[in-house]
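Project outcomes to date are best conveyed with an example. Our students and postdoctoral researchers have been running inverse folding experiments weekly, and each run begins with a structure described purely in tokens. The record below, which covers 201 residues, was selected by the lab manager from last quarter's runs and is presented without edits.
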């Protein structure tokens, strides 16, 4: 059996080697070029979206805001934002896109608004984040009872809809490369991605 350094018992050495749970101080210490999330007490760091993927995410953000945000003379009913920290139990996640029905939306004009669990989350899948989104974050979204989750992938031009039913997600794959589509929970909007592909091709 390996011995502990002088002055330390084996138990002391084991305690010293244990990782401390990540805190918001760890998130605050990250540079602006990285996105930090705390999942199961561990800090997970991802790069910012690359320009093409950022444009891709912004397209959906603008389409949804223009149609559903009352202050932009749309159909109303939703507050939709990009990259906001959300606490789910002891975890802190930063979805690429997220939204609340207007009656549940945080008062973002307040200095320190209370952020409720979103009603919708959208994640842009990239090689750097896909494993994190699928393996770690999606189960947390399910456990938190988020009714709708979108996984959107630029290369495949595919949207995966995860719809919560009886506490479990049902998955449906939707092509964004064909006809305009209507997708829950924003089925009032006909989503036509032809302009998007014209810009990216």
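After processing, the design step wrote out the following sequence:
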């Amino acid at each position: 059996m390996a011995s502990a350094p002088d002055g330390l018992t084996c138990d002391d050495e084991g305690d010293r080697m244990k990782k401390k749970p990540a805190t918001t101080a760890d998130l605050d210490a990250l540079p602006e070029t990285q996105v930090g999330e705390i999942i199961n007490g561990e800090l997970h760091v991802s790069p910012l979206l690359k320009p093409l993927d950022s444009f891709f995410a912004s397209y959906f953000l603008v389409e949804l805001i223009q149609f559903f945000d009352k202050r932009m003379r749309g159909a109303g009913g939703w507050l939709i934002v990009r990259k906001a920290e959300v606490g789910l139990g002891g975890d802190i996640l930063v979805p690429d896109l997220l939204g609340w029905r207007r009656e549940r939306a945080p008062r973002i004009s307040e200095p320190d608004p209370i952020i409720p669990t979103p009603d919708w989350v959208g994640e842009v899948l990239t090689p750097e984040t896909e494993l994190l989104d699928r393996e770690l974050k999606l189960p947390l979204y399910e456990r938190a009872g988020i009714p709708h989750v979108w996984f959107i992938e630029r290369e495949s031009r595919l949207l995966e809809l995860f719809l919560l039913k009886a506490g479990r997600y049902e998955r449906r794959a939707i092509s964004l490369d064909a006809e305009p589509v209507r997708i829950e929970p924003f089925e009032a909007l006909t989503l036509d991605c032809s302009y998007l592909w014209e810009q990216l091709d």
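The CA atoms of residues 67 and 74 lie 4 Å apart. Residues 1-5, 12-17 have pLDDT under 50 and may be disordered. The training component of this project remains on track.
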